[in-house]
Write a structure and sequence with these properties.
The protein is α+β, with helices and mostly antiparallel strands and about 950 residues long. The chain has 27 helices and 22 strands. Strands 16, 17, 18, 19, 20, 21 and 22 form a 7-stranded mixed β-sheet that branches.
Amino acid sequence: MRVWSDRPGLPHLAIFFAAYVLGCGFAQALAIVPETGISIWLPSGLFIATLAQASRRSWPQWIVAGLLAELVGNVLWFHNPLPVALLIFTGNALEAVVGAWLVTRIGRPVRLDSLPEVLALMVLGAGIAPIVGATVASATLAWFDMQSFSAAWPLFWLGNASGVLIAAPLALALFQDWRSGTALSEPRWLEAAAIGLILLGAAVLSLSAYLPFAYLIMPPLLWAAVRFEFRGAAVSLALIAMIAAVFATSGDNQFAGEPGSQTLKQIMLHLFLAVSAISAVIVAAISRQHQAALFALSERERELSQLVDLLPAYIRRLTPEGKPFFFNKRLTDYIGVSLEEINEIDGDRLEPAVKDYVHPDEAGDVEAAIRSAVATGQAYSLKYRMRGIDGVYRWIETRAEPLRNQDGTIAQWYSVSIDIDEQVRLYRELEEREGRIRRLIDSDIIGIVFWDLDGRILEANDAFLRMVQYEREDLRAGLRWFDMSPPEWQEKHARHEAEELMATGKMQAREKEFFRKDGSRVPVLIGAACFEGQSTQGVAYILDLTARRQAEAALSERERFLWQVVETLPVMVDCAAPDGEPIYRNQQLRQFLGYDLEALDGTGKSRLAGTLDAGVHPDDLEGVKTNYAHSLATGEPYARRHRLRRFDGEYRWVETRAAPMCDPKGETVQWNVICLDIDGEVQAQEKLRLAQERLSRASQAASLAELSASIAHEVNQPLAAIVANSHACHRWLMDSPPNLARAKVTAERIIRDANSAADVVSRIRALFKRSTATRSPTELGSVLAEGLGLMADEVVRLRVRIDPDIESDLPLVSIDRVQILQVLVNLMRNGIEAMDVTKGARVLGLRVRLMGDTIQTEISDGGPGIAFPEKIFEPFFTTKEHGMGMGLAVCRSIVEAHDGRLWAERNEPHGATFIFTLPAEAKAAK
C-alpha cells in the first residue's frame, strides 16, 4: 500500500504516532512555560508536512493518529486536564489543516524545489498557520485560568512557527528520500560526515558556555545547505535542535540564566533556532535552484549537441584560416575519420582532405572555391560528390558562412553540407521521364492535345492531326476542338465533361467522335486532365478507335453467324457453368422442353436440379444424377442414353454427351452439352432385337426338328434290327430243347446292331462337339470385351450396370473362342434376367483373376438367388417359366471340354454367383 494513499497503512500511522510523541517530549525539554507545553512545537511541522503530502481523503486518519499521540504526550509530560489537552490539540489540528491547505495551494506535492515553495512554507506554514494554533491554545489556557491570553499567545505562535521551520523541512526531506530511494556516493558520504563533525563541534561549543556567540554554527550549517540542499539543511537543523535540547535540559547553555530571565533566554533560543532554520532552508532553496539551473543548462547543451549530431546535415566549424576544429557526429560517421586524425596532418590540410573525400571531377573546383572564400571572406555554395566510409560517392550541397566579430573580422566559419544524392537522382529521373513524355507526344501511337475549356486547341501532336486529317498550318491558323465535336457531343460536354473537369481536375476516359476535315467522323477514346493549379486548361490523350470498331463489327458478325449456326443445328445444345448450372439453351432444346431457362428461377431448386427432376424419366433419374455428379467432380466427359420428357409429356430416348471447356490452367470454365433425339433409333433396335430373338427361336426349333428327324432316321434301322434279332433269339431259346447255336448267332447280331446304333449317336454328337484342333491361345480379356459389347444394348434397355473387375496381365488360355463367348453371354444373360424383379440399382458383377495356374471368372447378380446350386446344371431342369433347361448343361459341357469347371454359389443376402475356371497356358507378353 502506498504511504500517501486514501487509506494509509497501520505501520505508517504508527511511525507518525511515534514521531509525534517524540516531538512532544522535545517540546517538554525546551518548554518556555513548564507544565503548559509552550515550547518549540515540532509536531506542528510534522503535522503540516504529513498532511501536505497525504491525500485529503486520508486527513481524518492522520488527525486521529495525532490526537492519540497528543493524549499520550499529555499523560507523559504535560499533565494538562483532558479538556485542555483536547482543545489544544484541536488548535494544533486546525493549524496543520490550514497550513497544509495553504501550502498545497502553491502546488502538489510540496517538494521545496524552488524558492517560492520555501517562502510559501515559511510565510503560510510557519507564519499564518501557527496563528490558528496559538489563538486556540492561548484561549484555552486563559479560559482555564492557567495563563493570560496576551502572555501565552506570542509564546505559542513562536513555538509553533519554530517547530514548523525545523520539523517540516526534515519531514519533507525524509518523505522525498523515502520515495526516490536515491543514495549518496562514497565521496559524498565522506563530505557529509566531515560537515556533520564540524557542525557537531560548532554546535556544542556555541550552545555551551565555552563560546559567547551561538551563531558561530551558521557557516557549517549553510555549508550543509549548499552542498546537500534540503537534506543537509534538515539534518543539520535536527542535529542543532537535539543539541539545544540536551543543553537546555542540563541548564548549561548560552540561553540559560537566572529564573527571572529564564523565559527571555528560552525565547532567544527559539529565535536562534528559527533564524537558523530560515537561513538554512532559504540557502538550500537557492542552492537547489542554482543546481537546477546548472542541470538545465547542461541538459540544453547536451540537447543542442545531440541536435547538431542528429541533424540530417554534415556540420563543420573552421578557424578564420580555414582549419577545422569541430565536426558533428554525422560527418565523422560518414567519412570514417575523426577531427583529431585530420588535424594530425602537418602543413596545408585542405589539399589532401579534398583529394581524399571529393570526387576527382569536382576536387579542383571545390579547393579553389574554399581558398577564395578564406581569402575574400565571402560565403560560398557548392554541389559536388563526397566519398563516404564505404567508398561510395554521394552528391552533397555545401554552404559556408563566416561569423564576424563586432569589428568585422572573421571569428570562425560555419559550413553545412546536405546530402542531395536522392534529389539529384530524382532530377535525373524527372529529366528522363520528361524525355519519355516528349517522345510519347512526338510519337504516332496516341494523339495528345493541349486544350482550353473555351474550345481552343493550344497544341497537338502529329498523331492527332493525322487522326482528324488536319495539317499543322490549320493548327496554327486556329483549331477548335469544340467545333470538331458533333452536336450531340457538344451538349454532353456542356453538361457533364466541363463540370467533371472543373470539379475533379480530370475526365474519365470515354468514347466519343470527332469530325474529320472532310466531314466524316472518327471514333476515339479520350481522357483528359487539367494542368496542376489550373481548371481551364489541360491535356487530353486520344486514341483512334476506327480499327477497333471495324474489328468489333467483324467479331459481332462472326458471333451472330455462330449464334445462328448453334440455334439452327438439328441437335439440342446446352451450355452450363463449371458447377453444372445451365446458362444457355438453343432453340431446338427450348422447343423440345417447352420452357425457357428463366422459368426454372424462383422454384427453390437450382436450374440443373429443376431440369433433371422435371425432364428425366423416373427410372433413369438416379443414374443420370450420379453420372452428372461424377463428371462435375472429376471433369471427365459425360455420355449416357436416357429418356427425356418432351413438352407434350411423352418420354423420348435421347443420347446426351457433355465435355468440359478448360482454360490454359486446366480449370473448367464451361460445360458444353449436346442432346440427340434417338427415340426412333432405339425403337428400331428394339424391334430388330425382338425379330432376332423370334428368328433364333425358329431356327432352334427347326434345328431341333432336323436333329430329331436325323436321330430317328439314323437310329431307326439299327433299333429295328435289334428288335427283330431279339425276338428270334427268344424263339430259339424257347425251343425244347433250346437251340443254343441259333440263339448265339442271333445274340451276336444284336451286339452288331447295337454298335451300329452307337456309331450313329457318335456321329450326331460330333455335330455339337468341336475338335481340339479349333482351339488357339487367346487373351480372355478380349473375349470378355466382345461379350460386353454384345450385351451393351440389352444392358441399357434393362437399366443394368455392369461392374467389371478384371485383373491386368492375365496369361493366355487355349480355348475355342466361340464356345467360351457362348458361355459368357449365356451366364450374363441369366444374371440380367434374374434381376428383372429387383428394385433399386441393378448391378451385374464381372470379376476375373488368376488363381494359381487357372483363370477364374465370376459372374454375380442381385436377383432372388438359387435354391439348388448343383441341380440347375442337369439337362431339362429349369427355373424359368418358358425355359428348356439345356443352357447351363451345355455351358458346363463346354467348360469341362476345355478341362475347366463350372459351378454356382449363393450370395448373401440374395443373388447368385456362377464361377468357371480355365487352365492358363502361358504368361501374357508385357
